[in-house]
Amino acid sequence: MTDAVKGPASYFPAIEKKYGRPVAEWKDLIRSSPLTRHMELVNWLKAEHGLGHGHADALVAHTLAE
């Protein structure tokens, strides 16, 4: 039996399905951004790439935690 994915990563399948890009690509975009603060990155993903708040927040949180 496998444990269910929890936390920000639980959003990843929905993000890939809705926006048509793999999570690795989103994380590369976040890492290449000159922005460094969590909410700056969330707002950038929302404004420039059309992500919803929860999806942007999950991607940023997971990427910055690495």
Structure, described:
This protein is mostly helical. It is 65% helix and 0% strand. The protein contains four helices and no strands. Helix 3 (38-49) packs across helix 4. The longest helix is centred in the last third of the chain and has 13 residues, at 53-65. The N and C termini lie far apart (26 Å). The model has no long low-confidence stretch (mean pLDDT 93).
What keyword list fits this structure?
66 residues, mainly alpha, globular
Helix content: 55-70%
- What is the terminal-to-terminal distance? 26 Å
How would you classify the helix and strand content by structural class? mainly alpha
How big a fraction of the residues is strand? under 5%
What ranges have pLDDT less than 50 throughout 5 or more consecutive residues? none
**Shape call:** globular
| Pattern of helices and strands | HHHH
Number of beta-strand segments: 0
| Number of helical segments with 4 or more residues | 4
Radius of gyration: 12 Å
On the 0 to 100 scale, the average pLDDT is 93
Nutshell version of this structure?
The protein is mainly α. It is 65% helix and 0% strand. The radius of gyration is 12 Å and the shape is globular.
Which helices and strands, and how do they pair?
Layout: H1 12-19, H2 23-32, H3 38-49, H4 53-65
Helix pairs in contact: 3-4
